[in-house]
Specification:
Low-confidence stretches: none
Distance between the termini: 58 Å
CATH class of the largest domain: Alpha Beta
Number of domains: 2
Number of helices: 12
Radius of gyration: 21 Å
Oligomer: single chain
Order of helices and strands: HHHHHHEEEEHHEEEHHEHEHEEEE
CATH superfamily of the largest domain: paralog of FGE (formylglycine-generating enzyme)
Shape: globular
Number of strands: 13
Strand order of the largest sheet: 1-4-13-8
Length: 431
């Protein structure tokens, strides 16, 4: 096996180890549970991850005969329903027995190892690896909705971090200038189709919160009746809030005296300075209450990666790779940590916590960049299926985002009423 193929296999196996660890967090009886009706049960993902790998490489790239035709099709794709009443959310196939799925998984894994030398363009392996890494977050926010008795705490998980600065810093003024969005396909080692091409956008001067909104700050909005003030919500946002029965953030529990994490419901006092985790509709309502708005995608790029001299950085802190002292990503912690405790992660303009703890909501609908091309021939709908005006861009990364995905051009997206994702926000104002 070539050196390049060995490197690919090492990355595959690292992703599989983390997948296996995450599934081990579930009690056996929880595998067929569906804690979020807008997602399939856990057992689907046991089969979906290998099926995706096989369908991309074994079937589409190399034209190999199937290792399980009915499983290739059954586990091919997940769902993204608009509500629990959407027919897609009510779909409930007869999932195979776990032993059959695991045997299929093991056949696929062995084949993907063996075929690494045969694939000319390693980017298709990146498609498979990053797809697996992205689903780790899906699985974790599903696990967080389970009854605590059905979740297992792995060894070595740090205790929830309390503390952090109580006083908010003054907003940061970012001067007018260019933001560079996207990436150059020929120069980037890898990127999804929605990340291309690279282009520059002129951004007017704006003011932005130096830190994301915390649980303590968001509680002021809740206590002021923000969830009952219809003037702060769009018609669609109000309807979604009522459908979910939201009266406070979904992750707040026990009458807002605690905040739910993957393994504990921690006292609110411990988590008060963590970035609050909310849906887009809640973030937007809070921003309106503050007489502000959410950052746009170009403004985020300007604040995070721009420099006063007109240059740009690979990350807010510079060109060095992510590290725990700069950003809470890649499972350094299995929960958010206090905002404002990583000054080394600040951008050139002094904006903090732009990467890590939670994905950052923007006010920009998910759409193609000028010159967009669906370059993954075997997966043309990866992005294009969601260019519908019903999803918003998130940037940066959460505590559960793999370091491979922490890059300037990476774009995430979710529906505005989806309250489960690990997502934070901050407020901005035009000048």
């Amino acid at each position: 096996m070539t050196t390049a193929a060995c490197a690919v296999v090492e990355r595959l196996e690292a992703a599989w180890r983390r997948s296996d660890l995450i599934f081990s967090l579930l009690a056996p009886e929880a595998l067929r549970e569906r804690p979020i009706a807008l997602r399939h049960p856990f057992v689907f993902y046991v089969g979906h991850l290998p099926a995706f790998g096989w369908n991309q490489i074994g079937r589409a790239t190399l034209g190999r005969p199937s290792l399980g035709p009915e499983l290739d099709d059954l586990f091919e794709r997940g769902i993204d329903p608009l509500s629990e009443n959407d027919p897609a959310a009510k779909r409930a196939p007869a999932w195979p027995e776990l032993g059959e799925i695991l045997a299929y998984r093991d056949r696929v894994r062995a084949a993907l190892r063996d075929m690494a030398d045969e694939v000319a363009d390693a980017r298709i392996y990146d498609v498979v690896i990053e797809h697996e890494l992205m689903h780790h977050e899906t699985l974790l926010y599903m696990i967080q909705r389970l009854d605590r008795a059905k979740r297992r705490r792995p060894e070595g998980v740090p205790a929830p971090v309390a503390g952090g600065p109580r006083d908010a810093r003054a907003p940061v003024r970012v001067p007018e200038g260019d933001a560079t969005l996207g990436a150059d396909f020929d120069r980037a080692p890898f990127g999804w189709d929605n990340e291309f091409p690279e282009h520059r956008v002129r951004v007017a001067a704006f003011e932005v919160d130096a830190r994301p909104v915390t649980n303590a700050r968001f509680r002021e909005f809740v206590d002021a009746g923000g969830y009952a003030n219809r003037a702060l919500w769009s018609e669609e946002g109000w309807a979604a809030k009522e459908a979910y029965g939201l009266r406070r953030p979904l992750f707040w529990t026990d009458g807002a005296t605690a905040v739910r994490t993957l393994f504990d419901d921690v006292p609110f006092a411990t988590a008060e300075n963590w970035p609050v985790t909310v849906s887009w509709i809640e973030a937007n309502a809070y921003a309106r209450w503050r007489g502000a708005r959410l950052l746009t995608e170009p403004e985020y790029h300007r604040a995070a990666f721009g420099m006063p001299d007109g240059g740009r950085r690979a990350h807010p802190w510079g060109d060095e790779p992510p590290a725990p002292r700069r950003a809470n990503v890649d499972f350094a912690h299995w929960s958010p940590t206090p905002a404002g405790t990583r000054p080394e992660g600040a951008s050139a303009f002094g904006v903090e916590d732009l990467v890590g703890d939670g994905w950052e909501w923007t006010g920009t609908p998910f759409a193609p960049f000028p010159g967009f091309r669906a370059w993954v021939a075997s997966y043309p709908g990866y992005s294009a299926d969601f260019f519908d005006g019903k999803h918003f861009v998130l940037l940066g990364g959460s505590f559960a985002t793999a370091k491979d995905l922490v890059r300037r051009s990476f774009r995430n997206w979710f529906q505005p009423n989806y309250p489960f994702v690990f997502a934070k926000f901050r407020c901005a104002r035009s000048l």
